[in-house]
C-alpha cells in the first residue's frame, strides 16, 4: 500500500506469514519502520523532516556514493536526498517473501550533486521480508565510460530501550578510526571484551569487521543480528547527549555496515552488490 507523509510517498509492505512489516519512502529510499510481531525495531527521530528537502533521520538512510565527509560531496552523499523510483513490488507465489525494488540513476540526481560527482550510474535497492528477517540489497552499476569509486553504508538506526542497556557483539579487538578524536587510528580496538557497553559518545569506523554483528538490549530482551555481505567495515554511532544530539539520542544505536575504508572502484559496465540481513529475536 502507498500513503503520503508530509510531501512524501511512503510504501508499506507486509509479510503475513512471519508477522513483519516494513515502510520505505521513495525520497532517499529511506526505510523508516520495520516491525516484527508488531514491535518497532527502528528508531525514527521526532525531529524527522518529511519535506523532501533534508534527509529523513532514522530507519536506514543510505550513504552513497560517499560515506561521511570523506570526499567531494556533502556528508553521506546524495542517495538519501534523491527521489527514487518504484520498479517492482510484490509477494512470491508461495508467500515465502514480500519485496520491493527501488531504482535511482544519475539522471535523477540534482545537478548540484552531480557536478561534484559527475559519473553515470544506475542503482537498485531491494527490500525483502521473509522468514529469516529483513534483507536489504544494494546494487550499483557503472553506466559510463569512465571508472569511478565510491564509499557506501546502510546507516541503520536501531530502536533501543536505552543505549546504555545495550551490548555490542562482533567489534571486540577490531581496530577503528575514532571520529571523535580527528579520526585517530585505534589499532587494538579499545574494547577487548565481547559485549561491550556504550557509556559515552561513540563515533567509530571499525575496519574489516566480522560478517555477523549483534546488539543485545538487556531491558527489551532483544537481540538484533546484522549479517552483512561485501561490506567490510562497520560504523558505531551514538552522540550520547553531546551538544547537537537528537532529542531521542538515548533511544537509538547506529550500527552501520559499509564499504568505507577502501573505496570500491567500478570500471565501465561493472556492477557491485552489498547487502545485509537483519534479524531480531
Ligand atoms: O555514521 C555516523 C555519522 O557519520 C555520525 O558522524 C553522525 O554525523 C551521523 O552519521 C549522522 O549524520 P547526519 O548527516 O545524518 O546528521
From TrEMBL:
Catalyses which reaction(s): alpha-D-glucose 6-phosphate = beta-D-glucose 6-phosphate
Family according to the record: Belongs to the glucose-6-phosphate 1-epimerase family.
Name the UniProt record assigns to this protein: glucose-6-phosphate 1-epimerase
Record-level GO BP terms: carbohydrate metabolic process
Section of the entire sequence shown: 81 to 361 of 361
Keywords, in A-Z order: Isomerase
Molecular function as annotated in GO: carbohydrate binding; glucose-6-phosphate 1-epimerase activity
GO cellular component, one term: cytoplasm
Chain segments annotated as coiled-coil in the UniProt record: none
EC numbers for this chain: 5.1.3.15
Species whose genome carries this gene: Galdieria yellowstonensis
Superkingdom assignment: Eukaryota
